[in-house]
Specification:
Structural class: alpha/beta
Strand content: 5-15%
Helix content: 40-55%
Distance between the termini: 17 Å
Largest sheet: 4 strands, mixed
CATH class: Alpha Beta
Number of strands: 6
Shape: elongated
CATH superfamily: Aldehyde Dehydrogenase, Chain A, domain 1
Number of helices: 6
CATH topology: Aldehyde Dehydrogenase, Chain A, domain 1
Radius of gyration: 18 Å
């Protein structure tokens, strides 16, 4: 697992995930994935949790789509530099706060909302310009499998996805979309 973390970290250090345009493209690709593969996602959630399709859609898919739309609408404003108050030491300087991505994010999914609690933090991490490692819940096998299949197909993002049968033994199921 350490080798995969290093690969994701190197992908982040390349700077590819930092530009605003790249982040917006990735969020749009994620939205496209959810919309195009909605039936597959719902089937996985329903088989894992024995939820009705209506409940799975209203509790997980709608929330994810709303979060993506919110990020797409607000992200351009959030990434711009904001002027800050000047003091005696900085009055001749240009002082501002510039949001910057911090690196690699680990997302550990939960079994009770397996899609929502894996994808919602992914949306924030992509919007922030970070690279991501996702560890879906081993108790929601079907959702973990569909995520492992779909995320590399839709995202051109430094992302690793791990699924396991136990917390001690992660097994890599998805390849990082960014080849070295």
């Amino acid at each position: 697992m350490e080798r995969e973390v290093q690969r994701v970290r190197q992908a982040f250090l390349s700077g590819r995930s930092r530009p605003l345009r790249f982040r917006l493209q990735q969020l749009e690709a994620l939205r496209r994935m959810v919309q195009e593969r909605e039936k597959d996602i719902l089937a996985a959630i329903c088989s894992d949790l024995c939820k009705s399709e209506f409940n799975a859609y209203s509790q997980e898919v709608i929330s994810v789509l709303g979060e993506i739309d919110f990020m797409l609408e607000n992200l351009p404003e959030w990434v711009t530099a904001k002027p800050v108050k000047k003091n005696l030491l900085t009055m001749l300087d240009e002082a501002y706060l510039q949001p910057q991505p911090l690196g690699v994010v680990l997302i550990i999914g939960a079994w009770n909302y397996p899609f929502l609690l894996a994808i919602q933090p992914l949306i924030g991490a992509i919007a922030a310009g970070n690279a991501v490692i996702i560890k879906p819940s081993e108790l929601s096998e079907n959702t973990a499998t569909i995520l492992a299949k779909l995320l590399p197909q839709y995202l051109d993002q430094p992302t690793e996805l791990f699924c396991s049968n136990s917390c001690d033994d992660p097994i890599k199921t998805g390849e990082m979309a960014d080849s070295e």
